[in-house]
Amino acid sequence: MMRRWLAGLACVLAASAAVAQKELPVAPQPETPTTSATAAAPAAPASPALTASDVGAWLDGYVPGAIQAAKVAGAQVVVVKDGQVLFKKGYGYADVAAKQPMDVDRSLMRIGSTSKLFTWTAVMQQVEAGKIDLDADINRYLDFRIEPKGGRAITMNDLMRHRGGFEEGLKDLMTTDPAKLKTTERYLKENQRPQLFVAGKVPAYSNYGTALAGYIVQRVSGEPFDAYVERHILAPLGMAHTTFRQPLPPAFAAGMSKGYAQSDGPPVPFELVETAPAGSVSTTGADMANFMIAHLQNGRFEGRQILQPETARRMQTPAVQPAPGFDALAHGFFWGQRNGRLVIGHGGDTIVFHTDLNLLPQEGVGIYVSFNSRGENDGVYGVRERLFDLFMDRYFPAPPVRTRPAIASAAADAAALAGYYETSRRVESGFIGLFYLVQQEQVVANPDGTVGLASAPGATFREVEPGLWRELGGTRQLQVREIAGRRAILDSRNPVAILQATPVSRNPVLNTVIAAFSVLVLLATVLAWPVAAWLRRRYGAPSLLAGRPKLARRLVRIAALADLAYLVGWYLILAPILKVQVQVYNSDLDAPIRALQIAAIVPILGAGVGVWNAWLSFREPRSWGARLRAVLVAMALLGVVWLAWMGKLMSFDLNY
Length: 656
Hints:
Strand content: 15-25%
Oligomer: single chain
Radius of gyration: 28 Å
Shape: globular
Structural class: alpha+beta
Largest sheet: 8 strands, antiparallel
């Protein structure tokens, strides 16, 4: 259940991640031993030509069965090549109940974070116009101030590389009620995200950062952001069925595909994305073909330029070159090698719509896919990833991967690396931080000196250079460094987050044990209260305590009951996340959240009572069993305080 929440939240926030933070897909590679006989680079296996007939037949053989098995209602797939649409088709249904087929030309889909590519294109247009300096303090362009952490200004380049240092956020991220939808300006000013990191230092995917960029485009251009994109990007590209506007204007609403949790369930209400420049586009596959062609042709589409060639090439080039074999961000595009080919792109997810766009600039090829359902057991993610993997393996197969031997210290280094790690894309200042406290990545040292990741079952990594671990049979790499004073792991497939070694206080096993112990002991204490009273009445046994010890025991029982009520209150606040119902997190919850924040006095007083009761048990003639029970209850009450503090339940921040 926790994994489902994280996946859902990442989808909404990203992007991912695979998450919300969309990684370029990667397929497993065949392995070739490194020997003198294989010194020359092996040739890639023969592959069929990428033609309309071949790709159409292949997709028709894969997509219908895949979406049916995953319980995804409908999909759109578009392939472009050499400036032309090679293939486009809708599969399944845009409206299941009405049996309305998915129409790639007319059915609109929500593309989530793939929308960011329009925002970054708009930013680069304003760079061309001389109105935005990528290396200037963004406060220059804002009508409110963001106080930079550590005195280092946040720049547009930082935002484009997701290195603004911003903490993740959930409040007002999405709604289904138009009355609750905020303008981008209002959202940015009322929902400022804290900085976890100094700008430029640590990647941490941020929808807030992209929304800032869109607002800056609006301010420097003098046009509302929606109108700006329509005039300067959509109109030149002939994208008449695309809009950032929310709710959808009537002309667009009629063509909107319905979205589903899974195809055999009811449709969900239209999702309104509050960080609009980061994820609010509704579009068709046919329109997205034009967008792909423009970026594959250095900003040109049918004789019109949305970017000058040098600007388009700059947008597709990382501002900072990554280490060999590692992905990067290229002024908004995810940038990396797949099967030995350069691939740039961006994925996107709302709760129910899921999209992927990938371009191979050197081959002049692009592929876009979009689905209108999450699918059974989140099945859409596997369908989406496998589709691109199969596409690459069919038309651009990779040469065999050479195996590199492990270094001598690999086994010792694996043991030292093992442990728990938390993502840099997290919440620490609000109550949502409780989830990040208990759900973290685990690195496991294997007996053969390799390591594995809990999030990647079946994948093992061998240390081939000091601090550099490479996947056996694949090209994925992990780099171990010290960043921001902590050991960190950089994943070659994820340029928008790092893993940071978890301090003991944030260890998920420790905190899970504390939580389980505290709840079980408090439940036992509360349940034993009426049982003990009944037994005394049944057998006429007098109370063995009097005076202060009797009062302390009674107060401890009340404290245990009050703490359980306090935890139930927070559970009710947090429960919608487990169902991926993030639309409930808005100002309507401010009053109950504030009440629970004030109620933090309950576990604090309860812990004091528990310690007092334990102290009295050693001051009075009591059995060792009674003393042990008093100590255990005191520890449980202290455990609730610990969890409330570490999970930020005691925070008085309503911006979470």
